[in-house]
Structures are given as structure tokens and as C-alpha cells.
What we know:
mainly alpha; two-stranded parallel sheet; 3 helices; 2 strands
Amino acid sequence: MLAVCNAMKSEGIIIFAITFQLSNTSTQDLYRSCATSPAHYFDSPSNDDLQDVFHEIGNELTNLRLAQ
Length: 68
């Protein structure tokens, strides 16, 4: 998984990673490492938190501008 994530990141792809109701820290670390940066990793222990995460990611995506 990390090899794929790293290959995607090297191509300039932004990766958001979310864990949901997960207490396994090694899996959380894997997803955190996969994300583009620590700010692109989210842990959501509850449904309400997950909804907030998607809202935050949506806000970030609306701020992106495509350039060639």
C-alpha cells in the first residue's frame, strides 16, 4: 500500500486518508504515512466526526485550482 501511495504522491496526486473507528495504531500509522501530509490524514472515532472530516475535505477541495 505504501509503495502505491508513494508512487501517487511522486506524481503530484494529493491523497487524503481517513480511518474510521479504528483503534489499531499501526494501521493508523500506515494511513497517516499514505496521506500527502499529516494535515491530509484524519481519524474519525464517531459518525459525527466522520461527517466533519468529509466537510473539511470538501472545503479543501473547493479551494483547489487546476492549472496546466
